[in-house]
Design goal:
Oligomer: single chain
Strand content: under 5%
Distance between the termini: 34 Å
Order of helices and strands: EEHHHHH
Number of helices: 5
Strand order of the largest sheet: 1-2
Number of domains: 1
Length: 117
C-alpha cells in the first residue's frame, strides 16, 4: 500500500469520490515545491480524492482555495495531511480561517505565488 513517511494511504472518510476534481496546475506546482519527492504521489492522490468537489457545501470547480489551505497548513509535512483533509471534510470554513484564507478570496493565490517564487 502506498505510504508517505510511514503514513498508509487510506480514505479519511466515506465521502463519495465520484465528484473529485483533477488537480489544477497551481496545486500540482505547490505540492511539488513543498513536499519531498517520495511523498508527492501520495499527497496528490489524497488531495485529489479526498479534498475536492466532493466536500460538503462546495461548488464544482472551487476546490483550489480549500486544497491550497490544506497544503499551507501542512507546511510540507505529509504526516499532517490527513489531519487537515479531515478538517476540510468536517467544515472547510474552519480550514480557511486556520490558513488565513477566510477574508480574502484571493489570499490562496497570493500565498501560492509567494511559495512558488
Amino acid at each position: 500500500m502506498p505510504t508517505a513517511n510511514g503514513l498508509v494511504l487510506m480514505a479519511v472518510t466515506s465521502h463519495a469520490t465520484d465528484m473529485t476534481a483533477i488537480l489544477s496546475p497551481l496545486v500540482e506546482a505547490v505540492i511539488a515545491k513543498i513536499f519531498a519527492v517520495e511523498d508527492q504521489d501520495v499527497v496528490r492522490s489524497l488531495i485529489e480524492e479526498q479534498c475536492g468537489d466532493n466536500l460538503p457545501l462546495t461548488n464544482k470547480g472551487g476546490s483550489d482555495r480549500i486544497r491550497l489551505a490544506v497544503l499551507k497548513l501542512t507546511k510540507g509535512d505529509s504526516n499532517e495531511l490527513l489531519t487537515y483533509i479531515s478538517l476540510a471534510q468536517t467544515d472547510w470554513r474552519d480550514l480557511l480561517v486556520a490558513a488565513d484564507f477566510d477574508h480574502d478570496t484571493g489570499a490562496h493565490l497570493l500565498w501560492a505565488k509567494e511559495i512558488l517564487g
